[in-house]
């Protein structure tokens, strides 16, 4: 292939074009903004063409006509002689989905798909938490079992969504929206919630058992649909493999047997899809068994008035097996016991599962972690058999009332305790997660969590008397011990100041996942109840004399007719399990506190409007004297406000945790209290419920708007870009990892250009010896590029491939990814200086950033692999651009005295009017072309190390 390159001299006129054979591939990779290929190449859409890939991942290059257009000196579209410029587009993998068999759908189906993608966001956050633990921690008795803790938390999220769906289907619709069959003269009717669609009226003709069995089956189906959202569709790209590996050319030849590769470089890291799929069976088994146990519990105690409330449950003799056998309730009791056994086994298998590839020397790198699915499949089979038996038994239970006879009892037994029990367990795991990066041993936190949970449960079942005091004391002491031990261990961890949230990243991310899951759960339940309650006006809550007379007349005229009356139930309002309303109150209070924090932070920023933010933190900076200087300073202050995101996210996580605790500790929303406090409490309950319903409306609106341009675009695309980068290892229903295709695909392109994939090149070995690759990556694309270069370490050239260079700009490698995931992108992996994180209240959030230059490292690092031997043409084949006006772009090594980082201009010199640039426009900066030329020259002069 030949390309015409133009080179401009100072006269402003191009020289005579000379044909050049490209020897350097400049491969641009976009970031979170999902920049189109034409914009990446600084060309119009009609000036680029796709040269490889498909609609999900594709490589683009300038057309022949665009490449032949002469450019002025300094034009960002100018390509240096001998350089082939391509753009790699991967954004569709993170943001698009499809319905199997339907392809591109729109309308109601597309809206439902987008809504389901919103529901699995907490699962994705749990997966991110999995990778924030110490991934290099050795296994054994001294291990913290951090991965098992996060996977157990993910299992609780699945069960929470089961409780949510069951609350809507069984607790609200089944137990409250369909009243008992009532006869009035010759007319038999069933009261039905008026808001239900017309096709639901047919279910009123069924017996109570048949209708309940159908709702149980519908609950299971909804859960399966939710599980399938992240596992089906056009995103089946997880199993892609680079051409180099597929041909067996990746064997780790360059690895020092005495060393340890970073996690991202270990073979098997990007193939979690096959190993983590085993959790899919365990989660479904636990969910189906929980559903079967919930229904069995209801039928076990529905007709026993003294056993419909949990307080003092055991003290009232409700656990007497002899009574079960005498009353014919023993099968239901056995079903509850079997369900508990299946859930316990699924939790045990989930916590004990090991998914990560092994570390260590070269001899262990060929080993794969093989996971057997046999036990999980057997558990799923047992859960399905149990659930099938329950559905059949319920269907044959007749037409008796589904609700307990005691009007003060919950409509469906167990639905009060199940969500709150799950929330309590999530809170305990979040507290334990505070110390797992500091290697809080599993032998410590597991007994404390179990003792707290068991003690609290027994304190509820035997709430009165001496035993109630004993169990409450045990639970309280264990809870305090767990909290103190986790905090103290975390405080003692060395180097925690340079880790995300002071080394408490897993706890922060799990709190966010649990809080968001409960927000969506409460919004779904309270929103459904508000919808069903809306038509419950006075005229719909009673059967008027005129209506009754009309029914009698209709029955007299047509004796074969069996009319069904559709109207609101007799109760003024539908009953909601209290935990949801308590969480709504706590979460609204948390939102108010967050707003207050943001207001205070905004005021603090406003008071600093005259503060000068220097280019280098701690350096000297003259006060602005021109309009351009003032505009740059204003942009730097705005960027500094956004760069406090880590602290703000930590505050949101704390508020989420407090809201979860509030759903357990706040008073009963339906209880009445006297005085002013009672009035305020009732007002808070009413307003918070309305606020949650309004929040649900905003979520739905945002989902609809998010898909207005593309029917199946996932809502809030930026979140998917960040959340789906790492392999799915903690929750099987989480969205798939697009990097499991992006990294192998990008590697394959590099290997093909360099001839490392075994494909013959034109010109043979001479061409192969001349060719070089320069990865040019923006923002999150820098993370993709780093992962790709590390993945190539097992190739023919090993870690020190002199033919590859890296140019990053506006990236978050050091400030965010290196702090949140130290074992993946931290200083020990990149070979750069650690970052202490942004300050919250300081005028310059990076005033404490200057870090000492790290000493020599014995293990291989990315920077070391991009460093040429002494005496070469240049020391480092990595350059990174940053600017203080970039709100999410930072240096990768340091603001000053760095061999890698280069400050970029903050004003667009080509703009007609003054324009201060932020996160975009790096390739148009003059520093980009300067560093590009430097790296190209370095690569051409580089030689393999001996």
Give a quick set of tags describing it.
946 residues; alpha/beta; two-stranded antiparallel sheet; 31 helices; 12 strands; 49% helix; disordered N terminus; membrane; Integral membrane protein; transmembrane
Describe the structure.
Keywords: Membrane, Transmembrane, Transmembrane helix. This is Integral membrane protein. It comes from Cellulomonas uda. The protein is built from 31 helices and 12 strands. The longest helix is centred in the first third of the chain and has 32 residues, at about 145-175. By secondary structure, it is of the alpha/beta class. Among the domains are: about 5-95 and about 735-905, no CATH class; about 265-400; about 585-715, no CATH class. It is about 50% helix and about 5% strand.
Q: Return Rg in Å.
A: 31 Å
Stretches with pLDDT under 50, minimum 5 residues = 1-19, 254-259, 358-369, 536-546, 563-572
What's the total count of β strands?
Answer: 12
User: Could you describe the largest sheet, including whether it forms a barrel?
Assistant: 8 strands, mixed
> In DSSP terms, counting alpha (H) and pi (I) runs of 4 or more, how many helices?
31
Order of strands in the sheet with most strands? 4-5-6-3-9-10-11-12
**Helical content class:** 40-55%
Overall average residue pLDDT: 83
Termini separation (Å)? 32 Å
Could you tell me the strand content as a percent range?
A: 5-15%
Structural class by SSE content: alpha/beta
Shape verdict: elongated
């Amino acid at each position: 292939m030949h390309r015409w390159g133009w080179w401009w001299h100072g006269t402003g006129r191009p020289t005579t074009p000379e044909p050049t054979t490209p020897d350097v591939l400049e491969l641009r990779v976009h970031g979170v903004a999902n920049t189109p290929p034409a914009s990446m190449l600084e060309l119009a859409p009609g000036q680029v063409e796709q040269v490889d890939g498909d609609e999900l991942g594709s490589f683009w290059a300038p057309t022949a006509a665009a490449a032949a257009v002469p450019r002025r000196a300094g034009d960002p579209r100018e390509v240096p002689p001998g350089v082939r410029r391509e753009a790699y587009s991967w954004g569709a993998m993170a943001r698009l989905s499809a319905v199997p068999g339907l392809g591109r759908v729109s309308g109601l189906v597309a809206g439902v798909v987008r809504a389901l993608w919103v529901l699995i966001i907490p699962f994705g956050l749990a997966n991110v938490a999995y990778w924030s633990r110490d991934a290099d921690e050795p296994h054994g008795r001294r291990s913290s079992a951090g991965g098992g803790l996060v996977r157990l938390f993910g299992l609780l999220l699945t069960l929470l969504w089961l409780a949510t769906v069951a609350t809507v289907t069984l607790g609200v619709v089944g137990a409250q929206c369909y009243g008992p069959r009532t006869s009035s003269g010759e007319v038999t009717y069933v009261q039905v919630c008026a808001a239900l669609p017309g096709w639901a009226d047919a279910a009123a003709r069924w017996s109570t058992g048949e209708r309940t069995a159908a709702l149980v089956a519908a609950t299971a189906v909804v859960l399966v649909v939710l599980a399938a959202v992240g596992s089906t569709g056009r995103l089946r790209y997880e199993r892609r493999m680079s051409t180099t590996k597929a041909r067996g050319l990746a064997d780790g030849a360059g690895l020092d047997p005495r060393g340890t590769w970073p996690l991202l470089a270990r073979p098997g890291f990007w193939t979690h899809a096959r190993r983590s799929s085993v959790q899919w069976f365990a989660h479904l088994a636990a969910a189906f068994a929980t559903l079967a146990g919930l229904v069995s519990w209801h039928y076990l105690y529905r007709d026993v008035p003294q056993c419909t409330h949990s307080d003092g449950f055991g003290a009232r003799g409700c656990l007497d097996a002899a009574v079960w056998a005498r009353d014919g309730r023993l099968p239901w009791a056995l079903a509850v016991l079997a369900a508990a056994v299946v859930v316990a086994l699924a939790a045990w298998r989930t916590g004990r599962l090991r998914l990560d590839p092994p570390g260590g020397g070269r001899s262990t790198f060929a080993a794969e972690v093989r996971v057997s699915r046999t036990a999980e499949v057997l558990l799923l089979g047992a859960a399905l058999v149990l659930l099938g038996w329950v559905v059949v038994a319920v269907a044959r239970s007749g037409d008796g009332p589904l609700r307990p006879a005691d009007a003060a009892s919950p409509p469906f037994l167990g639905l009060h305790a199940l969500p709150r029990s799950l929330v309590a367990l999530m809170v305990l795991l979040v507290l334990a997660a505070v110390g797992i990066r500091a290697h809080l041993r599993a032998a410590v936190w597991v007994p404390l969590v179990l003792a707290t949970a068991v003690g609290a449960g027994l304190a509820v079942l035997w709430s009165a008397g001496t035993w109630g005091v004993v169990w409450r004391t045990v639970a309280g002491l264990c809870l305090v011990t767990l909290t103190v031990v986790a905090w103290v261990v975390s405080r003692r961890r060395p180097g925690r100041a340079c880790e995300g949230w002071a080394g408490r990243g897993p706890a922060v991310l799990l709190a966010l996942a649990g809080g968001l899951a409960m927000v969506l759960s409460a919004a779904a339940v309270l929103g459904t109840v508000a919808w069903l309650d809306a038509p419950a006006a006075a005229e719909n809550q009673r059967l008027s004399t005129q209506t009754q007379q009309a029914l009698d007349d209709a029955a007299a005229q047509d004796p074969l007719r069996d009319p069904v009356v559709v109207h609101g139930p007799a109760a003024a309002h539908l009953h909601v399990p209290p935990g949801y309303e308590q969480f709504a109150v706590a979460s609204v209070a948390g939102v108010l506190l967050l707003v207050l924090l943001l207001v205070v932070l905004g005021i603090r920023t406003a008071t600093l409007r005259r503060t000068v933010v220097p280019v280098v933190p701690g350096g000297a900076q003259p006060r602005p004297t021109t309009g351009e200087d003032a505009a740059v300073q204003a942009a730097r202050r705005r960027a500094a406000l956004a760069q406090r995101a880590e602290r703000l996210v930590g505050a949101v996580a704390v508020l989420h945790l407090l809201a979860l605790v509030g759903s357990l500790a706040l008073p009963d929303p339906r209880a009445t209290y006297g005085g002013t406090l009672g009035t305020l409490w009732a007002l808070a309950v009413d307003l918070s419920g309305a606020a949650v319903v309004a929040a649900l409306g905003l979520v739905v609106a945002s989902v609809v708007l998010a898909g207005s341009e593309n029917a199946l675009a996932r809502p809030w695309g930026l979140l998917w870009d960040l959340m789906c980068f790492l392999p799915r290892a903690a929750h099987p229903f989480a969205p798939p990892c697009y990097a499991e295709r992006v990294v192998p695909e990008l590697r394959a392109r590099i290997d093909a250009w360099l001839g490392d994939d075994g494909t013959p090149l034109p010109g043979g070995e001479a061409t192969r010896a001349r060719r070089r690759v320069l990865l040019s990556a923006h923002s999150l694309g820098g993370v993709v590029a780093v992962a790709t270069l590390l993945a190539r370490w097992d190739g023919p050239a090993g870690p020190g491939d002199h033919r590859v260079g890296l140019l990053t700009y506006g990236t978050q490698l050091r400030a965010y990814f290196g702090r949140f995931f130290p074992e993946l992108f931290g200083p020990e992996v990149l070979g750069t200086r650690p970052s202490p994180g942004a300050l919250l209240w300081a005028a310059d959030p990076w005033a404490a950033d200057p870090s000492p230059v790290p000493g020599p490292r014995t293990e291989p690092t990315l920077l070391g692999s991009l460093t040429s031997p002494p005496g070469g043409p240049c020391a480092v084949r990595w350059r990174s651009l940053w600017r203080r006006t970039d709100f999410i772009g930072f240096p990768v090594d340091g603001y000053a005295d760095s061999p890698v980082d280069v400050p970029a201009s903050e004003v667009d010199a080509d703009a007609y009017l003054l324009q201060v640039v932020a996160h975009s426009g790096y390739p148009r900066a003059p520093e980009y072309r300067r560093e590009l030329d430097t790296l190209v020259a370095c690569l051409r002069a580089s030689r393999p190390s001996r």
